[in-house]
Specification:
single chain; about 450 residues; alpha+beta; At1g16640 B3 domain; Alpha-Beta Plaits
Length: about 450
């Protein structure tokens, strides 16, 4: 089989991004495969769920993959045990379990060095210079193929030059799949078109494809997404061609870094909130509406790590995270709101935060907007945007520890003494000027 034939097999299997890694001698089924010394790997290869585990080597997080080995027939041999393991104390990511429970996988090419030495000389020739190919599909599957070191595929691969993708991986372009540069240019072209529209009536695109008016305060994001063809509440994936689209309000388009940005809104996974529910939580830790609106209780205000909030009496703590070293020290740790008495009012497990951040924020674009309400609510979007790439959940935790990212909820009980109406909104936010804390690279681009 040639390299072009292999790329064609990956395309026919639905792969949209293809990466390759030359395998070292100790990259095998016994020792695991070293992926990277960067948590960004978790953004590239989509996981089903991330689980926390404390091990003798320290805290780790296991990201289970929907993985299978691509066969030369075009069929796939599922490997249900495949997972990425983040050893957060280093940090580094390794690939393991890729042969467990699999029938038809490349067992011979993934044997450990001791077993290989006891095998025939031909096996040694096959193992030296192996190439691992990993493809990612639109429906979040990961497909793998190992080329023997003396194969035609490996010979052709080594004779060509491929761009670096991240750390130890190279990107292998697929002939019938748009390049990443194309997705960037298409995104910028669409944002330029939207900028030139001027004032746009506030709207939202429903999941059934119907366009509807939108009159809520958060309609700036919905209107932008509707123009991009992204339905409201569509899914947990990036919004447009692999880019997460974030809109933020500014008073002037000349101040593109002004305003505040909501990064994500995950519900607590632990503490009093999870155990007793949001109504009991607000009654316990909330307060009477400060604007005097009758029969209403609120829970809000900016909560920064290590600072006691004067109104709620709660302190946001990173439990199981070493601020000085910037590493997770307890896999079962969490971001927690804690009372003076030590009671955990609400908590977000690190594993859940890793899952959410890795799934949505690998690449993001930040778009400034303005709103006017007369004669009806309308939005306009700026001619300069910021493209942000190179993030991971450890950067998020570090930004939390530094106070750049903070918890700013908007939870309320209306008709608190009668038939209660509950609004849940647990939002993590960042000042627009501080998004550099979350990414390796932030670029200002004119659209």
């Amino acid at each position: 089989m040639t390299l072009d034939q292999l790329k064609s097999l990956f395309e026919q299997a639905g792969v949209k991004k293809l990466y390759a890694k030359p395998l070292a001698e100790n990259d095998n089924s016994k020792n695991q495969i070293y992926f990277a010394g960067a948590v960004e790997t978790l953004n590239v290869f989509p996981s089903q769920q991330i689980f926390a585990e404390n091990t003798p080597r320290g805290p780790s997080f296991k990201a289970h993959l929907n993985f299978g080995w691509l066969l030369e027939t075009g069929e796939t041999a599922p490997a249900p045990g495949a997972q990425l393991i983040l050893y957060s104390q280093y940090p580094e990511v390794r690939f393991s379990g890729f042969l467990r429970g699999c029938k038809g996988g490349p067992n011979q090419l993934m044997v450990d060095r001791e077993r290989a030495k006891a095998g025939p000389p031909e096996l040694i020739r096959q193992l030296a210079g192996r190439i691992l190919f990993l493809g990612v599909t639109a429906d979040r599957r990961v497909l793998g193929y190992v080329a023997a070191g003396n194969s035609q595929v490996a010979l052709e691969f080594n004779a060509q030059s491929f761009p670096s993708a991240f750390v130890v991986f190279r990107e292998v372009p697929l002939p019938n799949v748009p390049k990443e540069a194309d997705s960037r240019s298409k995104l910028l072209a669409e944002l330029g078109r939207i900028n030139r529209l001027g004032w746009i009536d506030s709207k939202q695109l429903d999941s059934d494809g119907r366009m509807k008016p939108c009159n809520a305060p958060q309609c700036g994001g919905f209107t932008l997404e509707a123009e991009l063809g992204v339905p409201k509440n569509s899914d947990a994936e990036p919004d447009f061609l692999g880019w997460e689209v974030k809109q933020h309000a500014v008073a002037s388009f000349e101040r593109v870094a002004a305003g505040t940005i909501t990064l994500m809104t995950p519900e607590p996974t632990g503490g009093f909130y999870k155990e007793r529910g949001p109504e009991a939580f607000v009654r316990r830790f909330g307060y009477v509406d400060k604007l005097g609106r009758p029969d209403r209780l609120n829970f809000g205000g900016i909560h920064k790590a290590g600072q006691r909030h004067q109104t709620t009496g709660l302190t946001l703590k990173l439990q199981g995270y070493n601020v000085e070293r910037g590493v997770i020290t307890d896999a079962e740790g969490a971001l927690a709101l804690v009372s003076d008495a030590g009671e955990v009012a609400a908590a977000w497990a690190f594993g859940g935060l890793l899952t959410h951040w890795a799934r949505k924020h690998a690449r993001a674009v930040y778009v400034p907007s303005q709103c006017r309400k007369e004669p009806r609510r309308q939005y306009a979007y700026g001619d300069h945007v910021r493209l942000a790439v190179g993030t991971d959940a450890l950067r998020f935790l570090h930004a939390m520890a530094d106070g750049a990212v903070y918890y700013d909820p908007g939870i309320k009980l209306e008709h608190a003494s009668g038939k209660v109406a509950i609004k849940r909104r647990s939002q993590f936010r960042v000042a627009s000027k501080n998004i550099e804390a979350l990414y390796e690279k932030v670029e200002l681009v004119e659209v």
